[in-house]
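# step 3/5: fold
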Amino acid sequence: AVFDNFIVSHIDLDVLYGIMWMAGWLKVTYVTRQLASIIAYADVYGFHRVDEILKNNEENIIDRYYAIGYLVNSWTINDEGREVKDISKEIHKLLLKIKDIILHGATDEQIVNYKTWLEQKASISKKYIENIFTLCDNRHFFIYKAPFSLTTAYQLGKIQADIILQYNEQSKSITLCCYDESVAQKYFGDNGVITPLQQFFGNEAGGKKEIGGTSRIQNIEHEMVDAFYQFLFSEYFNIPETITLEETHVSDHSN
């Protein structure tokens, strides 16, 4: 079947790839199937764990995946907040670029761009970190405030987080995520992060066990981050140790 119209609540790689499949832009080939598997894996388990599946793929598949990922992550539309609008033409242009990478491979320039992007991700994370806490079992809890998603930024130097809490300035939303499902259930029970999110924000909050957030129809102010993590500490953790950012060597905002 070929479809003329799609209504989506957000733009990310699995959504765009799905649109191309359903619109008949892609044929079932080894390349498209491998890319579909990687994209699905990253969507379910998180971009921070994608190396687990990439190691089983050829370099030309890996280059395509990261080149497309860079393209999507560097593509932004400033919509002055959460205004609902038709961005079909902009998405169409983006899809044509993605299709070209899938069918013909990543160019040398695109490979350089994505490799530079991956190297800079740690510096970007450093710029937007607000707090790092050490939990009672010597695990780490990162809090970010950024105008885009940093919910896979689990590594800062030698410090790795089990839990990330982020305030997204652009979408005015809060996201709580854990490194994987086992971490989420360890701290929050069988339903993972859904339990504390709905306890605090109500049933409109949702997601899956290892990552969830406030409703897309809610406008959450940054002050709610403090209230929410204080709630988490009182309900789920002993009083954590605060790590000063200077001690972590991740407070340099010039990167």
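# step 4/5: annotate
Confidence is low (pLDDT under 50) at residues 77-82, 250-255.
# step 5/5: archive (pending)
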